[in-house]
Amino acid sequence: MDIRLALHAITKHYGHGDNQVAALQNISFSLAEGEFLAVQGPSGSGKSSLLNICGLIDQPSEGQYYLNGQAVEQLSVKQRCDYRRREIGFIFQRHQLLPAMTVYENIAYPLFLNKVKAKQIKQEVTLLLKKIGLDHRCNHLPKQLSGGERQRVGIARALIKRPQLVIADEPSASLDHQHAHASLMLMRELNEQQGASFILASHDAFVVKHCDRNINLLDGSLAGEALGLGIL
Which residues, listed in sequence order, are joined to residue 73 by a DSSP beta bridge? Predict the structure, then answer.
């Protein structure tokens, strides 16, 4: 089984000098291609910092991060940006949809950025809209949607480009059980068909139950051992 990403002794500090705060301390674990990993922990435990590092939004203060065998610290800013655009999908807890774009346009935007042809964009977005049950809302703006509908659009936007890695922060937070299940099945479909790997920060027992394994953070450190794949 190929390793999608591996973290070795990752530490993240915020602030300077005597005002430094350690958000993460000595975090080491690996994630396989096609693996679903749940990250659990109370508020302030470091989950968001960990997701931001794994998603190339932030960089660690210490330690090594390998993505598809490549040392991330050796990538330029442009290379990290290009990798995020092409290969990483983000599902945000607060949706972060573009307010001036319709549901259709929000979902299509990642494909547009990746210069996919218009005919293919239309086919793929139309199909995904039907899968998430929002084809009748395709011309609505985010402000015209419920919280659960916005979350489903956010999930569809993250999955539309078939990323290698999906970073999800409380992906079921605004969803009822039916739509949480449907969204999770969409993620699993990408997981099974494309070998995408998922890191999901979640307090939802339903989501965690459907993950392959989980790790727990407490005060920025792993609580117990990250079981499963070998640690570097």
Answer: none
What is the C-alpha to C-alpha distance for residues 81 and 8, in angstroms, rounded to an integer? 22
Rounded to whole angstroms, how far apart are CA atoms 138 and 161? 18
158-189 pLDDT, tens digit per residue, is 999 999 999 999 888 878 888 888 888 888 88
The answer to whether the Cα torsion of 54, 59, 61, 67 is positive or negative is positive
The full DSSP string for 49-92 is HHHHHHTTSS--SEEEEEETTEEGGGS-HHHHHHHHHHHEEEE-
Identify the bridge partners of residue 5 per DSSP, sorted by sequence position: 31, 67
Q: What is the pTM of this model?
A: 0.88
Instruction: Give CA–CA dist 54/105, Å, rounded.
Output: 27
Domains and CATH numbers, the chain: 33-60+70-215 (3.40.50.300)
Please provide the distance, in angstroms rounded to a whole number, between the alpha carbons at the two ends of the chain: 15
CA angle 108, 37, 224 (to 5 degrees): 150
- Rounded to whole angstroms, the Cα distance separating 128 from 187 reads 12
Q: Token pair 């015209």 is at which residue? A: 144
Angle between helices 147-159 and 177-194 (to 10 degrees): 0
